[in-house]
Design goal:
- By secondary structure, the chain is α/β, with parallel strands linked by helices.
- Helices cover 38% and strands 22% of the residues.
- The chain is built from eight helices and eight strands.
- Helix 6 links the parallel strand 6 and strand 7.
C-alpha cells in the first residue's frame, strides 16, 4: 500500500468516513495485506509459529490507526477513564484511541506501561496523565498469544491503584490468552481471531 502526496479525496480517507460495519471489513483486509505473513517464525513468547502478525504495519498506518480507534471506542465501557497498554505494541493503539476519542466527544487519556521502570526521575512504570485513585482503565493490545504482555500491564496498573477489569485486543491467536485473562477475573474482547485473518487471507490470495 503506497501513499500519495496529493490532496486526499474521499477514497483516501475511508477510515474516517466508512460506517463501522464496513470499516471492520476494511480493517481486516489491511491486516491481511500488510501484517499477516506465513513462514517459520519464533514469537516473543518463545513459541514457533507457521505465521506471523506484525501489527505495527497496521497500527502505525494512518488509515489503520483511525479505523482501529473508531472500532475500539464503542467497545470501551461507559465509565472508562483511560486506556493503557504495554510498550511497544500497544503504544500506537492507545494513542490513536485517545486522539480519536476527542472527535467522538468522549476524550479518554492514554497511558503507556514500560517494560522496565524508568531509570531516572520518578522511576515510574506508567507514563501519562495522573488519574484519581481507583480510576477505571482498559488495557489494549495488538496481538494476544499467551496473554502475558497485557496481564503485566494489568498488574502494574492495579499496583498503581487503578481499577482494571477489561482487556481488548485487535487479534487473538487463540493460544491461551483468553483463558489466562478469565482466570485472572478479567473480561476479554477482540476485534478478530486468527481464524478470521486466515480465512480472509485465503480469499484474497485465491
Amino acid at each position: 500500500m503506497s501513499y500519495s502526496t496529493q490532496t486526499p479525496n474521499q477514497s483516501d480517507i475511508w477510515a474516517a468516513t466508512t460506517d463501522l460495519t464496513n470499516l471492520r471489513q476494511k480493517l481486516l483486509d489491511i491486516f491481511c495485506q500488510l501484517a499477516y505473513q506465513e513462514g517459520d517464525f519464533v514469537l516473543s513468547s518463545g513459541q514457533r509459529s507457521s505465521y506471523y502478525i506484525n501489527g505495527k504495519q497496521v497500527t502505525l498506518n494512518p488509515q489503520g490507526a483511525v479505523a482501529i480507534a473508531r472500532l475500539l471506542l464503542p467497545l470501551l465501557p461507559e465509565d472508562t477513564q483511560a486506556v493503557a497498554g504495554l510498550t511497544l505494541g500497544a503504544d500506537p493503539i492507545v494513542s490513536s484511541v485517545s486522539v480519536v476519542s476527542v472527535y467522538e466527544n468522549r476524550p479518554i487519556p492514554a497511558l503507556i506501561i514500560r517494560k522496565e521502570a524508568k531509570g531516572h526521575g520518578t522511576m515510574a512504570y506508567i507514563e501519562g496523565p495522573s488519574l484519581p485513585p481507583g480510576a477505571k482503565v482498559v488495557v489494549l493490545e495488538d496481538v494476544v498469544t499467551t496473554g502475558q504482555s497485557a496481564l503485566k500491564a494489568v498488574e502494574r496498573l492495579q499496583a498503581a491503584g487503578y481499577t482494571v477489569d477489561t482487556v481488548i485486543s485487535l487479534i487473538d491467536r487463540l493460544q491461551g490468552g483468553r483463558e489466562l485473562y478469565e482466570s485472572a477475573g478479567l473480561q476479554f474482547q477482540v476485534l478478530f481471531t486468527i481464524k478470521d485473518l486466515q480465512k480472509r487471507y485465503q480469499e484474497i490470495n485465491l
